[in-house]
Protein 1
Amino acid sequence: MSILSGLQTFSLGGAQAYFRTGTSPNLGRKTAVHDFVNSGSRYVEDLGNSPKIFNIEAEIVEQTWSAYQRKKKALEKVLNTAGIIKLVHPTYGKQNVVATVNSISENIVNELNCAKYSLTLLVADKNIFPTSKAGNKSFINRVFDRIFGENQTVLADSVNFYNNGIELFNDARDTIQDWTQNVNDVVSTINGTADEVAAFVNDINSFQQSLTTLMQEPSTLSQRMNQIYNNVSLITTNFGDLFNVALNLVGIGSNRTVKSGNSNRTEIINDNRNAIYNFNDVAATSLAYQVATNLTYNNQEDLDSVQNRLNAAFNSINPDTVDDTIYYDLQSLRNQIRLYLDTLRVNLAFIITQRVNSVPSTILAYSLYGDTSRAAEIITLNFVEDPAFVEGEINILSK
């Protein structure tokens, strides 16, 4: 936990930092002043509202090196992002901004790692990214970010831990712990970057240790749960591994059983369980959709396999229990991914079957493609044990 945990935080593109000081945005109107020659008269032309400029002195301070590096990397990645960024300001709320040139000073000692930022953020109403182009990757990323934000808000608004006795609290705590353990179990199956894995494990442990306190403030709890999901994507640079992890997270949890009974307390318990696991399934499915745009597809069969797995994940979500706005955005994300993948499909080879007599893989590759280096492709597609003898019904790519 940061030593500045009592300070107010702000969010910029999902990255968080501590808000030290900030100047108020410009107030008033844009004007053009026209002075009349040889006269004391003046005409002031109104040019509309003055757009806001946020000047923020921010800090990232952490006692552990891995947590410090992770938060610093996340913020600086956002600051280097082109176009509109979502700012969640402590007093002005959500704003669309563009980051201009910003400065940083850094102080690293044994007990404390601190980075101080002077940020200048210009409010901008128009997004430079095209939103109408089918399958546009930047649009996909924005829908993904929107779903994650909505998912966090809906979870905070949906849960009720204290309204009806200790049984309610205990069941919710057990359900969240079940979710946490399952996330940890799935993520531990990948061989990620050492620092990021260590940071993720520390976050999970810290979350579990402070769960009772976090449950007293649902908005903070949902924020921490959302951060755990955001950190999943940082653990590995292997998109194939990340895609598998995201899909394996859909449907996790052993505490999804509907509690029987007609009492108000039982209804709230079931609502809490639904809220927690709906949050999980939406986050995991959204992550899988976004990662799908970064996968390498060698042929149309690879692409079809990914689409089938994504469809299964989407279809497992019950639209009757998920917030309508989130489900609509999830459908939008799904449709954009379909368009994106269909565009890729046009240039991908497909697998066809051909019978060959016994022949070395290099000679076969040259006869089929005029390229001996593609022998490895034939060996992989057909699980060839001896490259000197390829025979029978084999799979080859159409181009």
Protein 2
Amino acid sequence: MKICVISTPIFRVPVAGYSGLEHLAWQTAAGLAKCGHEVSLICPDGSSCPGVQIIPVGPERQVDEKMAFDRYWKYLLQVDCVIDETWNKWSYVLKQEGRLKVPSLGILHAPVDTMYRTLPDVAKPCFVCISEDQRAHFEALFSRPARTCHNGIDLTYYQPIGVPRTRRFLFLARFSKIKGPDLAIEACKQAGVELDLVGDTKLTGEAEYLKSILGMADGKRIRFVGPANRCECVQWFSQAWCMIHPNQRFREPLGLAPLEALACGTPVIAWNYGAMRETIGSEVGVLVQSMDDLVSHIKLTATLTDDEVAYIRRTCRNWVAANFSMERMIRRYDELCKEAVETGGW
């Protein structure tokens, strides 16, 4: 089957720093090529992907999605199936115009109500959600069917490395208010534990909020680190005692960083909201419903013995391997492409 995967024009792949959907698009293209498909990947200049034809759209961060679409749309007319990982999903314009006859699988990487108010006027848009919670939200809003494919974790990359575990807690996400770094800081201060703050400071565009976060850090107990690449993130996951993911303000559609932390043997304390209910099992973390609850569980986790934590760490990695591996994600995309082509979609 000829499959075209569309990434964003923001980052070339493989991504040098830390990213979400661009890396997933790269993994999906490489994985489907290994399955025997003829795969092309639309992405910025200078990208590479093993076994995959690269269709460049210009230098990274120098073209927007509309400009990129103007450069690649003709390629979509030459394939059997499209996997559109972008934010704006211009492939649906071709579907609406009747020029793209093959299925286009639109992958939803953000909360549904932030991506669409009304759906594209396409008979079978073939939307794919990245969690069951997101799919339920999609179907409740639009009364249309969707499919689910959980994002996968590369367990050969995300694994514990030879660094000593510390008793420090970890926040790792972009410094956006919806991700709740202020909640993590406040909870750790109340619990009397140390915290490292790692994540992107540029893409969010929340300068005043970032300034307030910097003001809450003291450089020692609450330490602001800032951006980290993928390799550095593995080190932060591997040395942390526990990760805090306070998504109180954000209906998390999946949450890659918590799964990456689990793959590195680090338990997660997250808010009981969105997909956290299916990604954080009871043996690998805790779901909280209030700040008091968050502080209480941070205190409890800080008192665990080394033996207790060693058992939890093995369980964390086994959980990801069984439920959220990259191989499982690739198999699911293979199934969905075949279903869409053979049935005309959903």
Protein 3
Amino acid sequence: MKLYPTGNASDTKLYILDLATGDVQPFVTFASTRPDWCWISSGGTLTSGPVAFSNNDGIYRVDPSGTPTPLPGTANMIYPAWYPGCQYLAVDVDARADLGQGCNEPVRPLTAKIDATTGAVVVCRLANDTVWAGFPSVNQVNPNLVAFAGQFNGESNYYDQDLNYSWVTDTSTQPPHVTPFDHDAPTGPAFLQKFQARTGWWSPDGKWFAFESNRICPDLSGQTYAIFIQDASGTQPAIQVSDCKWNVQHPKWFPPRNDGKTLLIAPVQPIPPPGQSPQPYRLATFDVSRLVIGTGP
């Protein structure tokens, strides 16, 4: 089963899709987007645990067979990403959010760690004050590593998502060690389009990273994207998976499959012919098995 948003920007709701049967059902009946589900590993198998999503009110949690529960104090937090064990979430925090007493963090947006039951802030800032950070993803094998889409804030006095790289913060050190995901990308104010990247996501085994980018697209206005994968160390060149003409965004990995295939799933909105309106986004799967076998770390 997979969750996906449908609707326009002002009324997006999550639906659940059974990929085996094609059956589609509403997951929640109110505005909801940017879901992440926590996979529980036990006895060599994975089962689906709680789901988190966000809307203008903040972060919501839905336990299996449960109802959506808003997490207190999470207004203006979006894009939740689970830590292993389903106890904590990494979230994207904007300038309006109240992180509570003890969190004096003037540089926003940032990523924070919160309690997935109470909404309380556990770590005020997962990165550091040199970057604007959002769209987090937690490495499920080494949760000290949190990837995010970010921008060196010495580049300009405003946040521009089209100037993002993928970054990684290592929270095992204090202060956290923060570097671009791609080891060849500049760490200072020298943005290079060939490293542009957003909405990255670790593979379940922690060996690969998928992200969207317009780095090779003829339209750099943020209207078209391709998806790429890269080894987790960031030392090898990123591998292009899709063409810009398909406008593929927000890739996520399937959990391990019995047939041994490695798949991504992502929303697709092909560029329409001149004079025609865009079609609705649709879900597509991408078999990247041949790209990852024998080439990972």
Protein 4
Amino acid sequence: MKLRPHIVLCALWLLIGAGIQRSNAQENPDDKAHITPRATPTPTPASSKPTQPQQKPNQYEPPPFPGDAPGTPPAEKRQGGYDRPAFPGDAPGTSATGESSSRDSQIDLSAKPETKETAPAEDSSVLQPWDPHKAAKDVEVGQYYYKVKNYRAALERFNHALIYKPDDAEATLGLAMTQEKLDLLSMADQNYRKYLKILPNGPKSREAEAALKRIGPGVATSKASSANDPAAAAAHDLQVGESYLSSNNFDAARERFEDAVRLTPDNPLVYFRLGQALQGMQQLEPARLNFRKYLELDPKGKFAQNAKKAISDIDYILGK
């Protein structure tokens, strides 16, 4: 049987291709192992179960509190807490160790309430408003009234200036001069001397010394007549009290009227003036009694209507 040539050629080609493929496979490095085995055995993985941390002694040291002296060691940990410096307000001798916030805030029901001693209230009569500007303005207005001979108005202004500035030299001298014009010689004598005490070498010191010499005999006479004649002394007290009343110096006026009442207890005008002074001091019940005393002594007097109106006003305020 004759083989065809092309079949023979195909067979030869296949045999040649298979030989070439075998030789390439022997020389290919990919046929070798890529990973070199370890010399040591592979470690076994640890268990995934969490382990409890080992208990260690607490070595924490709290930092020092603010305000501790330099070099002071921090507080040591104790069974119930740690030492702390005493807080403001802690009772003397109280331990500074706090065990817990709940124990620190415990309330002692058996403790007595603390009583704070209240300071005694200051006497309001001692407190005086201080305003030199208002005092200077009152002195200026008072000097104007003195020049135009309105002595009552001048007296009120000078007294008002001394409320805002008690040791004002000009107001003191102006008050003394005005009191001299109103024939209040004993009071003028006091204020002239007060001016010389404030300004011994002041610009008006010579005038004040001359005024003291001028009114000296009159002051001595008024003192002698007051000692020998209670009515004259009461009249003088009444006049002085009215001058205080005109300047709203109610307390000084009250003292003068009370002296006049003791000297002349049958003078109705003194009771009326005393009632006005007490009313200005807001002592309404005593003021009402004096107004009623005035109406009792002089029911149709010059100030009867004023006394009745004052009693009505006080009844309305007091409700009886």
